[in-house]
Amino acid sequence: MTERHVNPEDFDLYALGALDGEEKQAFEAHVHVCSACAAEMVAAQERVSLIGLAAPPAIPSPAVRESLLRRIRSERADSATPTAAVSSPQTRPRPHPFAWLTPILALATIAFASLAVWLWTRNAEYLRQIDALQSQLASAQTQSRDIARTAADTDKLLGMPGTVRVGLKPMTGMHNGRVGVLYNSDMGMVTCAGWLPAAPPNKSYQLWLVPMKGKPMSLRVFSGEWNEPMAMHVPAGMVAKAFAVTEEPMGGMPSPTGPMVMEGAGE
User: Fold this and answer.
1) pTM given for the model
2) C-alpha Rg value of the chain to the nearest Å
């Protein structure tokens, strides 16, 4: 004869505390002698525990908190009142039929707490990676827009009368690097393209426009490797005698102080 088990729905109902009366007594009696149903009951209690972990914390209102405190104080006062009933010294408390489940449930609670911490940590790491990728994307978009504007300015310069091309040549000791400049004094516009290696430690390369009259004007400072076209605006009517690249302290200087590494004559 096939052994009859409890109703499958009773596992979740029991875990939620929804069984009572004869149904609860019959359920507990069966689970106490059936290992398969006992394991299913543990699984149902774990599911209910997960539901409790997933719920967002609820903050009670001050009125609810005060009502609960009054109820606790009242119950403590009632429990302090002596009762006439005296238990028999020969009566021994009957062990709970599911006492053996207590350590299992404790281990399950610890496991679920560890899992929640691990999931939170992984989620935080994913969020950091997403932020880094978004930052890289924004930087790439800005760089693309700058390159597009520089290309448009270069096309504009090439089509205007009075545009001058200047190629900067490496000086002694500067074995690498190539820089080409287009400038139009009437438009007050300069574009620059080429490649420069990274500057020495704690140093920067600085690009200058050397006018026919007055002090050199700083156009750009490079610390790391440079290989992107760029466009700059200068005062209209400023005629360039030369363009130069010097080695300066990190971050550049208001006027040239270091050795010249590249130079090209203007008009």
Assistant:
1) 0.45
2) 41
What structural domains does the chain harbor?
Answer: 164-265 (2.60.40)
What is the Cα 190 distance to its own chain's centre?
Answer: 39
- CA-to-CA distance for 124 and 118, rounded, in angstroms? 10
pLDDT at 249 over 70: yes
pLDDT single digits (tens) 44-72: 888 777 766 665 655 666 776 677 777 77
Cα-based distances in Å from 135 to 58, 126, 129, 140, 208: 36, 14, 10, 9, 31
At 183 the pLDDT is 92
